[in-house]
Model the fold of this input.
Amino acid sequence: MITAQALAVCIFTAAQTYVVPPSVILGILNVEGGRIGQVVYNTNDTYDIGPMQINSTWVPRLARYWGVSQGTALAEIRDNPCINIGVGAWILRREVDKSGDLYSGIAEYHSSTPWLGHNYQRKVIMAMQRYRLVRTPADLVPLGGRDYP
Done:
């Protein structure tokens, strides 16, 4: 279990480190609905891990980068909420950089299949609106690339 204060520190640290809006991290957390210690198996022989439902395809790369075994990397992503949120923010940042904008980055966080990504993007924005993190989707549109507040 993580306290609300500790969760806030994790979210804001990840947002600042990877220059992504904390409201988007909260939106993704809400849509993903994952929990600490959770593993959800997918139909494509992968699985999603922890609060931000990090796909297992990232585990080998993270293990190499961290210099640990894949089992250790999996355990950290699964059981440490701050690491899970940090990895999610890192993935979001990569997708924003690849696509060139925040909207596409949100979609790509979930899927490179356009209609799946678009539906996910809509769900994240709706979650952000529901919790009054943004008033309209236009509140989210950055000027470009890395121009986030």
